[in-house]
Design brief:
With about 130 residues, the protein is an all-beta fold. It is about 0% helix and about 50% strand. The N and C termini lie far apart (about 40 Å).
Length: about 130
């Protein structure tokens, strides 16, 4: 069983920075790929950034590349999403997802690939 808890969302202005956190609790220590997604009303959850299970690979969506950075603190079992130069179109609920994977190098980018989700954290960017 995996539990994910996101935090760090809020209301910011365009150009500001924000860091989201995802605390990961594992009942069994297996390799997990982790990804950040976001969702706006009426739209599907879309991939933002992700790690492969061995953390050797990271992938970013084109519209956040060079602005967002995914990282992790292994000691704290926490995954971060550092978001810089925020734009109004970044406004969304951000979700952390995890997928148990023995394919250690794959970064999963489809919502349906992920088995576990957090409750989400709202990010609102005003213009």
């Amino acid at each position: 069983q995996v539990q994910l808890v996101e935090s760090g969302g809020g209301l910011v202005q365009a150009g500001d920075s924000l860091t989201l956190s995802c605390e990961v609790s594992l009942s069994v220590f297996l390799p997990y790929a982790v990804g950040w997604f976001r969702q706006t009303p009426g739209k599907d959850r879309e991939f933002v950034a992700g790690f492969s299970a061995n953390v050797a690979r990271t992938t970013y969506a084109d519209d956040v590349k060079d602005r967002f950075t995914i990282s992790r603190d292994s000691a704290k079992f926490t995954v971060y999403l550092q978001m810089n130069s925020l734009k109004p179109e970044d406004t969304a609920v951000y979700y952390c997802g995890a997928k148990q994977s023995w394919d250690l190098y794959n970064v999963y980018q489809e919502r349906t690939d992920y088995e576990y989700w957090g409750q989400g954290t709202q990010v609102t960017v005003s213009s």
